[in-house]
Amino acid sequence: MKAAKLENDITDQWAQLFPVAGYTSGWPQNKDIAHLFIPTTDAVHDANDKIGALRKRLPEISDADLRTTADRQLTLLATQLAWPQPGVAVQDCGDGAFYIDLLTGKAFGRPDPRKWLPGFLDSAAKKIDFETERLTKIPLDVTHRRQCLTAAAYCDATMRILKKNHSAKIDTVLKKLDHFKQTVDGSIKGLDADDVPTVIHALREHTGAPTYTEGYPQLLADLYDFVPSAADLDTTATTWLEQDLTIVKALAAELASLLRLPRGSSVGDVWAEVGRKWPVGAIRVKDAAKICANFADAYLVEVPAGLKLSPTPHYLEPMITGGQDIAVDFLTDKPQSCLYYTEDKTSALLTMLNVVVHEYSHGINFVLSAQRAGSPLLNLAGPMQVPLTEGQAFWREWDFSHAAADIVGHSGLTGRQRDYLNLYGQTTAEQSQAIRAAQFETYIWRVVRHLRAMCDVEVNMGWRTFVDFLDQAGEQTGLTEEFLFGECFTFLAQPGYAPAYAIDGIRYGQLQQQAVAKAGTVKDFNTKASAMGFYPWTICDRKLRA
């Protein structure tokens, strides 16, 4: 990947601050993870000095949009240093262990890490110690404590997987993690439980007044390039929620009648029955993914070389749910993206198809961008990617379900169209019913995205507590609090991520529809959008309009 010297120097700085991502990306200067970045006062001061020096060199970049992107990347790095979220340092250690396991496996075959693994484990132990000490000096409410415990559980699991093949130094890391967990749990019974009802009960028992997340408006602006205020974002998400809930409830009533459910069945009840009515059955994830990819390549978006499809390695199954796309070597001339799937973790056909479509979209975005965008600054892993890549993946679910509705019952279909329709059933009547249920599924996930955005804004702005949000969302949607917890709580660890995902996802769809109305095609628009790279969202929006 050719680039000007300043672009490479900024990428070097990114890789120094995020060495796990640098290693995963294939960036030449990051051939190992022998040293994690530990944000001590001196280290942060030194990093900010380097960021400042790089900023003075911005005139070296002649292209105005790329120069603005470089500027925003430097601002993003400085903001992440200024506002570290509780537990993120521990999450980073877990990510390191995860990618060491993954990349030295059969799929990617990186060199054996034993030479530098001791350095990684030593720095992981120091980083966990640092985070433990840091969190004793700042106020943590019960929600923050649960976030930290979730990060610790992930780190513990990945380290134990790593231990099966590597160093005894991992025992030291695990002891540090135990101390971290004891420090942050606040002696709250049930807060570290695996079952969601117990966790929710603990949150209810110990939640006090709402708390404001320091720096939240700056995180929205600097990490995700949001121009609207937090209040405007909340209003937008609330408006879309109300609109889509009306559609969801109408579809639920229609499907309840079709499925012979009692009158007045909740949205959650109908969705559960849809999962039973349309199980995965004999359709394998691998086969469904290939059919969806072939259909997409013909009608929705170019599917590039470099995408893989693989069963989740058994040792990583606890880390990967129904499916997850993982991009590797995305700063090289041979980017790869692998969709890992776990056959026995999704029993509902329509949910499985949504997962496949969403995760494949990520892979397409990362690989096309890496192949064609032309600068490493346009493919750095981090918040700047979220509005476009998550927005595209969000909208791709819509593309697929509506593409099926457009062709069902038609004659003269291509082989790829017939194969795709056959995922929903063998007859036109079966297909029509399943596609209607798929639209219901898609709208539910739209509702979930709106809820995540509202949760992010309202909880981080200190307008309501998370448990208050759960109560309101459950009453409003008819979805269970266990489901809502699982879909909303995780995103609180990354303030601003959920609004960027949901609100910019809707905007992406609007821009796509406008392009098609002007005699463009969905495939042409999506392919160009995926290949242009990850500019700040305001630049993406302008380029997509063009």
Keyword list:
546 residues, mainly alpha, three-stranded mixed β-sheet, 3 strands, globular
Count of β-strands:
3
Overall geometric form = globular
- Proportion of residues in extended strands: under 5%
List the helices and strands in order: HHHHHHHHHHHHHEEEHHHHHHHHH
Q: Return residue spans where pLDDT drops below 50 for at least 5 consecutive residues.
A: none
Main sheet specs: 3 strands, mixed
The strands making up the biggest β-sheet line up spatially as 1-3-2
Measure the end-to-end span.
26 Å
User: Averaging pLDDT over every residue, what do you get?
Assistant: 94
Given helix and strand content, the structural type is: mainly alpha
Give the number of helices: 22
**Rg over alpha carbons:** 23 Å
Question: What is the percent of helical residues?
Answer: 55-70%
Overview of this protein structure:
With 546 residues, the protein is mainly alpha-helical. Helices cover 64% and strands 3% of the residues. It is built from 22 helices and 3 strands. The chain has helices at 5-17, 19-25, 41-56, 64-82, 88-103, 117-135, 142-163, 170-184, 196-206, 216-224, 230-258, 267-277, 285-299, 349-372, 386-407, 415-422, 428-460, 466-477, 481-488, 497-517, 522-531, 537-545; strands at residues 307-311, 323-328, 336-341. It has a 3-stranded mixed sheet with strand order 1-3-2, covered by helices on one side. It is globular. The two termini are 26 Å apart.
What does this entry show, briefly?
The protein is mostly helical and 546 residues long.
